[in-house]
Amino acid sequence: MATRGASQKSPASPERTPPTRFGEDNLLWAAWLYYEEGLTQAEIAERMGVSRPSINAYLADARTRGIVSIEIEPDRFRALTLTQAMQDHFGLSDCFVIPSDGHDRPLIDRLGAAAAQVLARMTKSGDTIAVTWGRTMLAMANSVEAGALTDVRVIQATGGTTAKIPWTPEACTSRLAENLGARCIPLSAPAIVSAPEMRDLLLREPVLAEQMEALSEADRIVLGISSLRPESTIHTSGFFDGISIRDHYHSAVGSIAGRMIAANGARVDGPLERRTIGMDLDMIRNVPERMAVAGGMDKVQAILAALRGGYVTALVTDADTARAVLTSEGYEDRPRRRSDATPATLPERTRVKKFLNRPRDAVDEAIAGALLAHENLLAPIEGAPRAIRALHGPRKGKVGVVIGGGSGHEPGFLGYVGRGLADAVAVGNIFASPPPDPILAATLAADGGAGVLHIFGNFSGDLMNFEMAAEMAKDRGVAVRTVVTTDDIASAPVDTRSARRGVAGNVFVFKVAGAASDRMLPLDQCAELTLRAAERCFTMGVALEPGVSVDTGVPSFRMGPDEMEIGVGVHGEPGIMRSSVKSADETADLIVDRILNEMNPSDGAEVALLVNSLGSTPQLELYILNRRLRQRLRARGVTVHMTLLGHCYTSLDMAGVSITLMQLDAELKSLLGHPCESPAWTVANV
Amino acid sequence: MPCFTRSDLTTLFHAFAARMADERTFLGELDGEIGDADHGVAMANGFDAAAQALLRAEGSGQGLAGGFNLAAQELLNAVGATTGPLYASALTRAGEVFGEVASVPLARLPELVIAICEGVERRGQGKPGDKTMLDAWGPAAHVAARGLNASVGPVVLLREAAQAAAKGAEDTRAMMAARGRAARLGPRSIGHLDPGAVSAAALMDVLAEWARHHEEIA
Questions:
Q1: Per-residue pLDDT tens digits for B110-154
Q2: Predicted ipTM of the assembly
């Protein structure tokens, strides 16, 4: 622990005196050092000047009194820890970490404002400050306020760029100089010239030579860090015009002052270097104080590269970015101990017994058993062991409905094959999309001459394989339309619905498609209704225990004994956040709040409700959740038209639940009520 | 002059399959952190299926393109998922590059790396920095292309490419996933290695080691 630097600011010896923000509360202090700083009990005992057994007692007391569970993590404290970790790890003299959550103010503006404060405090009369360009630099320049300084020079670190962007080197330099009350020294040349000879010629011009000389005298440089990701503004600066990044800068991950750096911070040379006018990386490293201002998840790799390369002595960033940079270096922000050490809890699930023969035969053996269990409903498709058709589904003139996906979701997907539901299914390995061949076989088996509708959840594997199968089907003269479901609201923000996973809402979507096709509607209309159903479904899942891999017998992800994963995916993908386990009502509230928030139903709206076990959660708990869901929906003026409750769309034996609401209209209601008969869902003909 | 023949393709795929079987658990653990934990199983089973099919088809007069296409088809059908189409596309591309010939000079083997990269790119539409297998295949292919132009020997060149792939895989730790299942994690994907890039680097390592051994015994 490098506490010496910080100790200069506190009057008393830091080893013996609790920080004032904890007052006299030794419990709180001990808990903070243990859970947030990750110190051992012995280290804490030494730090606080008490015996180790006392620390043990403090911690136990802190837990029983609920001090630990009240989350000692206001951003301030975390930022404090992050700052220290950044300084220690990268040898920074200073690091300023602002909170990542800035409400409505853009991160770049807030970083600029923070950097402006730091810069104003650091700058002394007579200083020469070099500055690069970019959005963050301009934001900083805009918010700097002058102190009573004299003889300060602000100097442009690179030549000029295209004027099509507002944050040109000229703009950043002149604005900063103006607001600091400093003299402005431009660099009177373009940043990139057409040929090395031109650069050499220009550098011999006395005006430019004098400016470059001033640059070499800089006491301090303030620099932005650019990523080279497609969304980076460096691509609009004109820097790369006529240059293939792929050919010349493939190993570059970031850019400082227009110079390219690799992931380890090394310089990346290409055709631009000898045509660039301005500070190069060696010159930058020779400046005594080098303050970088950068944040954002897209910049993590570039910031890390800049830190590794030693181009930065001080960094202004935000907490999420700092945490991500440190995580990339193997630093654990939250010691696992936080949950592991909690006493008197259940042991973590480590190995689970299974009814299996050879694990790799599991899917084929399950298919064989399913075909026998449902022999009055399902039939194999010849030559395609991983494709199954409905015995009474496909018929001439009817649109074929083909579904599919990985195994492990039983009764998804083959449970939804039957008259009035899907006509055929392609079955993949566990949690893996089926390959194109069985999808094609299912498509041909379902085809009644009126075209085939493919329906599957939005996963990159399913997209690729179904797309390949659709192309193959089209080559054989079968018209295919595709509906990709995206109901998992926890998997991406509302404005990028197309990025969301398709999960348990599939059950309702399959039903609507099956009913529409059973009514002999044409392909376009079936697709349109199915799409409408898909868009009206909103699902969110919560996991209590991971599912267990059939292959290895061990859980597919780790979960602390007292944790739950909110927003979990149907393959155990991490969701929105980990939290402590909540009661049934709290869990139902949490899910229904998010769903209603997106769905925004009008008073009197009607929905279909799916209360789904993700595998090992028993029906008893589903009923408890359902009770609360109905209370909440009634209070909101929402009527539940129909309910499905049970193991409808699982994730092996994961403990957890997913809730789906589908907003109904008269047509969708009628289609949901249409008769069907399949292994998992039968609606009687009344 | 040492050659790369159709039966060499079989031994190479057996080496791939053996390595993927060794890495199976580790890859599954990596995938469990940011995905669905099936990458180890998919790679092991996929390459095993391809290797066995190549062995069965030996002596049938099949050339290199036929072998690569067979491997592609077997791998695709054994795996599905994302891994299947991506490596199937990679191997199909390799078949196009080498053509239906009985053998090529060993010096051309680095072209396989470039072909795999092109095939993966064509199917997956990914970009460098997306935190995918392309972040390993991309740097390896670049090294291979540069070395072929400079007439570097295949054994040295493939080892350099393997090092580039390993480094590329390590660099995925700091990347935020932009494609595949992990993309939905956004910032939470940072700090984890991409399992697809790690398995790609392992395959690249096998290829380099196979070439070294092959030249030694030739």
A1: 999 999 999 999 999 888 899 999 999 999 999 999 999 998 999
A2: 0.83
- Which of A323, A495, A573, A650 should one mutate to test binding to chain B, selecting the residue with the greatest count of B CBs within 10 A? A573
A448: how many CB neighbours lie within 10 A of its CB? 17
If DSSP codes are grouped into helix, strand and coil, which group holds residue A213?
helix
CATH code for the part of the protein at B3-217: 1.25.40.340
Residues B192, B182: Cα–Cα separation, whole Å: 10
Alpha carbon of residue A25 to chain centroid = 37
**Beta carbons of B176 and A298 less than 8 Å apart:** yes
User: A434 to chain B nearest CA, in Å?
Assistant: 5
List pLDDT tens digits, range A296-345: 988 999 999 999 999 999 999 988 899 889 988 877 654 333 334 343 44
Which member of B37, B79, B124 has the closest CB to residue A549?
B37
pLDDT at A10 (0 to 100):
37
Q: Which of A298, A304, A464 sits opposite B82 (nearest CB)?
A: A464
Mean pLDDT lowest among A33-47, A331-345, A442-456, B79-93: A331-345
Neighbours of A161 (CB within 10 A): 23
* DSSP at A571: T
* φ/ψ of residue B205, rounded to 5: -65, -40
From residue B109, give the alpha-carbon distance in Å to each of A381, B48, B115, B197: 41, 21, 10, 21
d(CA A82, CA A86): 6
- Cβ separation B36–A573 shorter than 8 A: yes
pLDDT per position as a tens digit, A347-371: 666 667 889 999 889 999 999 999 9
* Distance from C-alpha of B95 to C-alpha of B118, rounded to nearest angstrom: 12
Three-state SS letters, chain B: CCEEEHHHHHHHHHHHHHHHHHHHHHHHHHHHHHCCCCHHHHHHHHHHHHHHHHHHCCCCCCCHHHHHHHHHHHHHHHHCCCHHHHHHHHHHHHHHHHCCCCEEEHHHCHHHHHHHHHHHHHHHCCCCCCCCCHHHHHHHHHHHHHHHHCCCCHHHHHHHHHHHHHHHHHHHHHCCCCCCHHHHHHHHHCCCCCHHHHHHHHHHHHHHHHHHHHHHHC
And the tokens for A179?
Answer: 């607001």
**Strand A676-677, strand A639-646: pairing:** unpaired
Asked if residues A423 and A396 have their Cβ atoms less than 8 Å apart, the reply is no
Chain B, nearest residue to A570 by Cα? B36
- DSSP character string of A348-396: PP-------SSGGGHHHHHHHHHHHHTTTTEEEETTEEEEEEETT---T
Q: Which of B28, B38, B139 sits opposite A251 (nearest CB)?
A: B139
Say which amino acid occupies B145.
A
Residues of B in contact with A229 (CB under 8 A): 129
* Radius of gyration of chain B measured on its C-alpha atoms: 16
CB atoms within 10 A of CB A346: 8
CB contact under 8 A, A229 and B35: no
Note the pTM of the prediction, 2 decimals: 0.75
Give the mutation candidate from B47, B184, B188, B192 for the A interface (greatest A CB count, under 10 A): B184
Q: How far is A334 from chain B (nearest CA, A)?
A: 13
Joined tokens for residue A578 = 């980990």
The DSSP string of A218-287 is -SEEEEE-EE-STT-GGGGTTTTTT--HHHH-TTEEEEETTEEEETTS-B---TTGGGB-B--HHHHHTS
Selected residue of A464, A558, A576, A653 to mutate for chain B interface (largest B Cβ count, 10 A): A464
Is there a contact between A297 and B187 if contact means CB atoms under 8 Å apart? Answer: yes
CA–CA distance, A207 with A209 (Å, rounded to integer): 5
Which residues in A391-536 belong to E strands, given as ranges? 400-407, 424-430, 452-457, 480-485
